[in-house]
Write a structure and sequence with these properties.
homodimer; 4 strands
Amino acid sequence: MEEHQKHRNPNDHIVLVGDKPFMNYVTGVVMQFTTQNANEVVIKARGKFISRAVDIAEVTTKRFLEGTVDTAGIKIGSEDFENKEGRQVRVSTVEITLIKK
Amino acid sequence: MEEHQKHRNPNDHIVLVGDKPFMNYVTGVVMQFTTQNANEVVIKARGKFISRAVDIAEVTTKRFLEGTVDTAGIKIGSEDFENKEGRQVRVSTVEITLIKK
């Protein structure tokens, strides 16, 4: 379990952003609020995927779930990890929390 | 003047992130706090540069000005504009506010 997830309830709704098609993530967030009835969804991303996480939050709150879901908070941070060449590298992280109004 | 800047004091310290070398922006932020004695610096970015804005904030607060400058708040938003083909497109924006402790 990653450090920043330790204090989270395991039932929390989390979407981790990677390089799948953009709409997969938007649909994932929307479905957690609708079919899974979540009150809160956290969008997490690292490095270059941070811009995408913001796009997903904006498209969800301003288009698909406009008026019913808001961005409640945004946290940024850094993680150190070893890359495939064995060097210690630093990467920025973001957590965007969306909540049902 | 852009819409989201209307209510800002013209003396506010703003760094707009683009595709110049990464360290130019870090140095720019650091110098505003040090030689220009700013109490607050706002890092702004749009689209793909949002990830970079987060990197700049993290490197500034965790390395160069560790212990003296913190991330005070992060806002995300969207802007509509006409691209060079004349089509209306949407782009995400971020504003990261750093403050002197």
